[in-house]
Structure formats: structure tokens, C-alpha cells
Design brief:
The chain has 130 residues and is an alpha+beta fold. The protein has a single domain, classed as TATA-Binding Protein (2-Layer Sandwich), CATH 3.30.310. The chain is built from 3 helices and 7 strands; from the N terminus they run H-E-E-H-E-E-E-E-E-H. The strands form 2 sheets. It has a 5-stranded antiparallel β-sheet with strand order 2-6-5-4-3, covered by helices on one side. Strands 1-7 form a two-stranded antiparallel ribbon. A hairpin with a 2-residue loop joins strand 3 and strand 4. The longest helix is centred in the C-terminal third of the chain and has 19 residues. About 8% of the residues have low confidence.
């Protein structure tokens, strides 16, 4: 009987660990716009760098209004949607919506944060090239 109870407990524990794919959502807030030469950029240049960076990673980038781009990444049956706010001095990537990423109470599938880290890195790289 003890063997059976131990086996059931271990099985439940393994299922619990396997299901731990959620993490707190990571937003990028007011990341500075930095260029190699240190020259200031216009809002249009920052927008273009963000759109180029997102598109290179498979994001559908839609400029909605001055200072705001909506980014949408669709991978298989997973969808992530973010608001990207920008000025000539800074940009932010903020969670907006998702499908099949198990969003709940500020927690989301761990892959989402990796996608946001990649997007931020690519934006920074494109800004440095300006």
C-alpha cells in the first residue's frame, strides 16, 4: 500500500512540475533609444527601426498612431499581441493580449517572455545601426 501511495504521489508531483510553464509577464518599460554615434533620432526613425526589427522576427507590426505600434506574433496556434509605445528617447513593449499562452493573473507561458526578449534585443540592434 505504501508503494502505491508513493507511486501516486510521485506521478502527481511529476505532472505538477511538467505543467509549470507559466512565468510572470515581463514588460519592457522605457528602454532608452541608443545609437552608435549617439545622435538623436526622430520618432519616424524609431518607428521604422521597431517595425523592421519586429518584421525580421516574424511579428506583424502595425503602426496605429504616432508613438504606438501593435505587434502580433502568431506561431502555430499561439498568438501574442503587444503595444509598443515609443518616443525619440525611449520605447516600451507592453502585453496586450494572447491566445493559447495560458495567460492568467499576470502569468503567461514562458515562451512569451523569450519572444519579448528577442524583440527587445532586435529593436536595440536596429537602433544601434542608425
Amino acid at each position: 500500500m505504501n508503494y502505491r501511495r508513493t507511486l501516486i504521489t510521485l506521478t502527481l508531483l511529476l505532472l505538477l512540475i511538467a505543467g509549470c510553464t507559466s512565468q510572470p509577464i515581463v514588460n519592457v518599460t522605457d528602454a532608452p533609444v541608443v545609437t552608435t554615434g549617439g545622435k538623436p533620432l526622430t520618432s519616424d526613425q524609431v518607428r521604422d527601426a521597431i517595425v523592421k526589427a519586429g518584421s525580421a522576427l516574424g511579428w506583424a507590426m502595425t503602426p496605429d498612431s504616432p508613438g504606438l505600434i501593435t505587434g502580433r506574433l502568431s506561431l502555430r496556434d499561439h498568438v501574442a499581441v503587444v503595444d509598443i509605445r515609443y518616443t525619440p528617447k525611449a520605447f516600451s513593449i507592453i502585453y496586450k493580449d494572447s491566445t493559447n499562452l495560458h495567460y492568467r493573473s499576470g502569468q503567461i507561458h514562458r515562451n512569451y517572455n523569450g519572444w519579448i526578449e528577442n524583440l527587445e534585443r532586435e529593436i536595440r540592434n536596429d537602433l544601434l545601426r542608425m
